[in-house]
Design brief:
This protein is α+β, with helices and mostly antiparallel strands and 91 residues long. It has 3 helices and 5 strands, in the order βββββααα. It starts with 7 loop residues before the first strand and ends with a helix.
């Protein structure tokens, strides 16, 4: 029997490779807005983060999301993502 390959993605915070299903996808839509993609299936450019607040803070500090999306991300957006991240990880 053939084993299915597990898709691996790199966290923009800690730069570790992990299973795609263990990570949270951050998405830039066609209109330029940034949001969390809890389903992992929405259209747009995606970047992945581990499901820890530390990785979100690291991504903010090292500008990992800004590099992935090739755009400046305002502080309010990081704060909104932090609240949404808390909801999704705990809930």
């Amino acid at each position: 029997m053939n084993k299915k390959k597990t898709p691996m993605r790199q966290c923009v915070g800690c730069n570790e490779m992990k299973n795609k299903k263990e990570m949270m996808r951050v998405l830039r839509t066609a209109d330029g807005s940034i949001e969390l993609d809890t389903t992992g299936k929405k259209n747009g450019r995606g970047a992945y983060l581990c499901m820890t607040k530390e990785c979100l803070m690291k991504a903010r500090k090292n500008k990992g999301l800004e590099r992935s999306f090739k755009m400046k991300i305002p502080d309010e957006l990081y704060e909104n993502m932090e609240r949404e991240f808390d909801k999704n990880v705990q809930g």
